Amino acid sequence: MPPRRSAKGRSVPRASAVILIGFMGAGKTCVGRALSSELGWAFEDLDQRIERQERRKIADIFRESGEAEFRRLEHEALSSLLRDSGPRRKKVIALGGGAFVQETNEALISAAKIPTVFLDACVEELWTRCERQSREAGIERPLMSYRERFLGLYEQRRPRYLKASLRQETSGKTVEQIVAELIRSLGLRAARS
Ligand code: S3P
């Protein structure tokens, strides 16, 4: 495969890590796992890192300590994750829906020079996915609340998500399709190809 070149003809380093962002229900964890396995990279989910470190569920952190404390833990966890990842990272990282929206987190990511991918879907589909996950898998999302509030929060956050390096549409697509499209648009190579 020839080296990637920028529009000005300079060679562009191939991404050695990718951060998936997007609203609740966007499929960040699910797509992240599948993408990492296809690339032969490690996978890390920021919310799971917080839960391991805190030894409690995200919903319990919100209930017992409030959102402000969750955001503080989230920022610390992101900072240590990026520090631990090192320069030869080969890692797919999935963030919780509110992480990229916090300016301090966006600054950390931009300093780490890791491309971000906004997994997008129409908000009605995001709501349906979250409702189904809550009903079928008991997944509790503290900020899901009721439909109108969910829609409002999505509209409020969308301009932030659009600042990602890349937007990937997910509505009506399978995880396999999304992963294949992402590998192509990021100029990466599947481990088995
Ligand atoms: C949040 C989304 C959740 C989790 C926390 C806050 C948010 O992650 O980080 O409940 O602010 O949108 P998911 O996007 O994986 O549901």
Outline the biggest β-sheet.
5 strands, parallel
The number of strands is 5
Encode the helix/strand succession as letters: EHEHHHEHEHHEH
CATH H-level homologous superfamily name: P-loop containing nucleotide triphosphate hydrolases
- Percent of residues in helices: 40-55%
- What order do the strands of the largest sheet run in, or round the barrel if closed? 2-3-1-4-5
Radius of gyration, Cα only, in angstroms? Answer: 17 Å
CATH topology: Rossmann fold
List the total number of helices. 8
The CA-CA distance between the termini, in Å, is 12 Å
> What's the domain count?
1
Shape: globular
Q: What number is the mean pLDDT?
A: 92
Q: What is the CATH class designation?
A: Alpha Beta
User: Low-confidence runs (pLDDT<50, min 5 residues)?
Assistant: none
Report on the architecture of this protein.
The protein is an alpha/beta fold. The chain has one domain: Rossmann fold (3-Layer(aba) Sandwich), CATH 3.40.50.300. It contains 8 helices and 5 strands; from the N terminus they run βαβαααβαβααβα. The protein has helices at 28-39, 46-54, 58-65, 67-85, 103-112, 123-137, 147-161, 175-185; strands at residues 17-21, 42-45, 91-94, 116-120, 166-169. Strands 2-3-1-4-5 form a 5-stranded parallel sheet. α2 crosses α4. It starts with 16 loop residues before the first strand and ends in an 8-residue tail after the last helix. The model has no long low-confidence stretch (mean pLDDT 92). It binds shikimate-3-phosphate (S3P).
